[in-house]
What does this fold into?
Amino acid sequence: MRKDSNADRSTGGGTPLQLIQRFINHRFSYCLDLFGSEVSTKASEYFGSGLKGRWEENKRHTDHCLLDTWVTLARVVHNGLVDTRFSARLAINEQLRDDYITDCEGVIRRINRVLENTELDFRFTLPHKRFNRR
It folds into this structure.
């Protein structure tokens, strides 16, 4: 029989897993804001001058200038989401944010594998990348 993941673990000196999940939600969404806006001319200029790069640029990417590459982003327009096409260079912050999210998902998967070997039914998740954005 598996133990209920909602049980209060703090009586044994542990931190409740729901509190850790709330911490993950807060810190993850806060860190996503640090990448800046999805479309940024400053980030584009920094990328073009070599001051800003992508994760594993030489291994994962063949287009190192991003002059002829386009991406589609969902943008908020009049309280709704509209798909808009932008130069990949203008959307470099969004690409970096997506790489960071992929890295965080790997960490959460590893933590959840540890939880699978316990008697707990709880699994951690990452919030959607639009959660709590400023």
